[in-house]
Write a structure and sequence with these properties.
Helices cover 58% and strands 8% of the residues. The protein starts with a helix and ends in a 6-residue tail after the last helix. It is built from 4 helices and 4 strands, in the order H-H-E-E-H-E-E-H. The strands form 2 sheets. The chain has a two-stranded antiparallel sheet. A two-stranded antiparallel sheet has the order 3-4. With 152 residues, it is mainly alpha-helical. It is elongated, with a radius of gyration of 29 Å. The longest helix has 37 residues.
């Protein structure tokens, strides 16, 4: 998880980040306005309190707790996070996966297994052990991953 964050921080440039922050702030203002104008009044009507739910509050020994403002901010946050995730993160991940899979080369020696005769580590696509020279059958999954034909 932290490696992904480190890659994110290190790959972008400052101008793109600044533009993203400005657009994000404007988008957050729009979502907050939408939440305040439409969502919180609807919640207020559904819960029985008339009008704007964001004005709801309670008091304990003279201290006023405006919980409606917190709920309005939480709803705006959830809407912002959901829209950004489904409209930006998911499509960008699909685009990156589409292009990265085509560019990645498979290292045919990366997948290893143990020789059944001498128990030393050998490539999974090997047909002969480099240590004891025993003939062995290559792993069909490793052959398919490397794009090599199956051996008989």
């Amino acid at each position: 998880m932290l490696n992904g964050f480190k890659d994110f921080i290190l790959r972008g440039n400052v101008i793109s980040m600044a533009i993203g922050l400005a657009v994000g702030a404007a988008f957050t203002a729009v979502v907050t306005g939408f939440s305040t104008a439409f969502i919180t009044p609807l919640i207020g009507l559904a819960t029985g309190s008339v009008g704007d739910f964001s004005a709801a509050e309670f008091s304990i020994e003279g201290a006023i707790f405006p919980y409606g403002k917190f709920l309005a901010a939480a709803i705006a946050f959830l809407i912002t996070a959901a829209v950004l995730y489904f409209c930006v993160v998911v499509p960008m991940t699909k685009v990156q996966n589409r292009f990265s899979k085509a560019d990645e080369k498979v290292d045919i020696k990366a997948v290893v297994r143990d020789c059944p005769r001498c128990y030393t580590e050998i490539p999974a696509i090997a047909s002969r052990c480099a240590h004891c020279t025993s003939e062995i059958k290559p792993d069909p999954e490793a052959l398919a991953l490397a794009g090599l034909p199956a051996q008989r």
